[in-house]
Write a structure and sequence with these properties.
Largest sheet: none
Oligomer: single chain
Strand content: under 5%
Radius of gyration: 35 Å
Number of strands: 0
Order of helices and strands: HH
Number of helices: 2
Structural class: mainly alpha
Helix content: over 70%
Length: about 80
């Protein structure tokens, strides 16, 4: 084998190995990014469930308080202020 053919073989082999390594690294990075997205989605769903439960609990408390207390609309009274003495 001539020196030029050996250098060509070495160069193309190095290029091929570099390409394989780069593709492998890129696939790993994409896999980690997708996994991070799944983790983020699960966390967002958990937060949404907690907020929904808090909302439902507040609604139940509001209904319970409305049963115990008389609630009246004060906006009508604001149109006709009561004179003070």
């Amino acid at each position: 084998m001539s020196r030029a053919s050996k250098l060509t073989l070495l160069g193309t082999s190095a290029f091929a190995l570099g390409t394989v390594a780069l593709v492998h690294w890129q696939q790993q990075a994409e896999k980690e990014a997708m996994h991070a997205g799944v983790i983020r989605d699960i966390e967002q769903q958990r937060i949404k469930r907690e907020r929904q439960l808090d909302f439902e609990m507040q609604r139940e408390l509001e209904n319970e308080y409305k049963k115990l207390q008389t609630v009246r609309d004060v906006t009508d009274q604001m149109d006709h202020p009561v004179p003070t003495k």
